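During the reporting period the student researcher (J.K.) took over the structure-prediction task from the postdoctoral fellow and processed the backlog of single-chain submissions. One of the processed entries is reproduced below for the supervisory committee.
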Amino acid sequence: MRRETQEAAGLFTTGECENMEGLFDLLADGDTAFQLQKSEVARQLGWFDEASNILSSISDPKFARVVSFIKQLIDDRDTRIRRVPDWRMIGSIR
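J.K. obtained the following structure tokens:
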């Protein structure tokens, strides 16, 4: 694996980490919905700096609540899977 992941903390198996890394690589840059998803994958893998950098590129006010929520999880160093507010609307805004 190219980065340290949370498998040592028992949150994900090696296979799950590899799958999440593959998903991270597949998510396209540029599209805001994909950027949010990419940031979430990075956060869940414990790649907090990368997750934060991705979020800092999102300036669309439609996503402010979601970005704020994910930033708080990053600040808290929280890698757990969380229900993100307004997540269901992300796919419809393109």
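The committee noted the following: Helices lie at 14-26, 32-44, 48-56, 64-75, 87-90.
J.K. will present the remaining backlog at the next meeting.
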